[in-house]
Amino acid sequence: MPKRIFSGAQPTGNVHLGNYLGALRNWVALQHEYESFFCIVNLHAVTIPQDPKLLAEKTRELTRIYLAVGIDPDVSTIFVQSDVHQHAELTWILNCVARMSELERMTQFKDKSRKSENVSAGLFDYPVLMASDILLYQTDLVPVGEDQRQHLELTRDLAIRFNRDYGDTFRVPEAYIPKVGARIMSLSDPTKKMSKSDDDPNGCVMMLDDADAVSRKFKRDVTDSGTEIRFDDSRPAISNLLTIYQLLTGKTSDEIESHFAGKGYAQLKQDLADVTVEFLRPFQERVNGIGTEQLNRLLGQGREKASKIASTTLSNVYAAMGVVGAGTSE
Ligand code: AQP
User: Fold this and answer.
1) How many Cβ atoms from other residues are within 10 Å of residue 269's Cβ?
2) Is the beta carbon of 116 within 6 A of some atom in ligand 1?
3) CA within 20 to 30 Å of 259's CA: 32, 102, 148, 281, which one?
4) Known active-site residue 269
5) What's the CATH superfamily of 4-182+292-321?
6) Which tens digit of pLDDT belongs to each residue from 77-95?
7) Of 192, 196, 251, 305, catalytic
């Protein structure tokens, strides 16, 4: 069987540079080495209340973003999670394998549930749905940002437990978390990750921001004390800006530090805004150039290809567990 990757993003809010640099960028780089599945995870999105019209729009926008960042539909499968019903079905099965105590340990649930009074059972169960997404495709590698590391460990634990109890059924996947860019921080608070659900819109540079918004956000960026511009873990704000600069320009840290030697923060912010705008301009043109017909065709093909693999895995799961019904021979 070919080596596979699977990953996804939620069609909520606006895709930001953190999503791109921590995840989508690596999907593009890995897609030619692996058989690749990239999902728009709309069932994850509804773990938090969503405006129905907006969710449908964002689902299509995110598909356009996948294509415009460079996911090649000739080599990769792009599909919407709700189009493949096996994701929800396998979640039920894995709910019966997961322990309450291990879900209670998930830090993302703890963080997100703190922000809301009416926390859904779906939000609690989010990591099991994510495990189902990954295991359905017999995935080898899952390229994600640092915030998903714990969910990936749970996915591995569930696969290992199921295989032990019911026989070898799932491949046990590995996380692919990049050395640089796995946790891009908020521009307004460098102790927090850049996040779609951040209350402060200035903390996030969005992939669809115009040039003025990009410049304004970098200009307002919080900086650390000290004046030297170099990578330094004890100065998270400046290191975050330099990491973004490094990933967008492809320069080494030495090249970047010598480029900024003797220059001030204002220059760094200006240069960073310039390279970001240069990067976003052609990307945004590609987003706008993708028509509805092309989108529908691609998502239809994606659904077909993903469904075949997902249905084989789910049949194997049911057979392994003795979950059988009409038409099954003794
Ligand atoms: N700040 C980040 N730095 C690096 N990678 C990141 N990712 C998210 N934030 C950063 C990675 O982006 C991929 C898709 O994320 P998602 O759509 O599943 O959303 P999320 O992980 O819940 O993070 P968001 O975008 O900030 O949304 P909210 O505010 O809802 O939590 C994932 O691989 C993720 O690791």
Assistant:
1) 19
2) no
3) 281
4) no
5) HUPs (3.40.50.620)
6) 999 999 999 999 999 999 9
7) 196
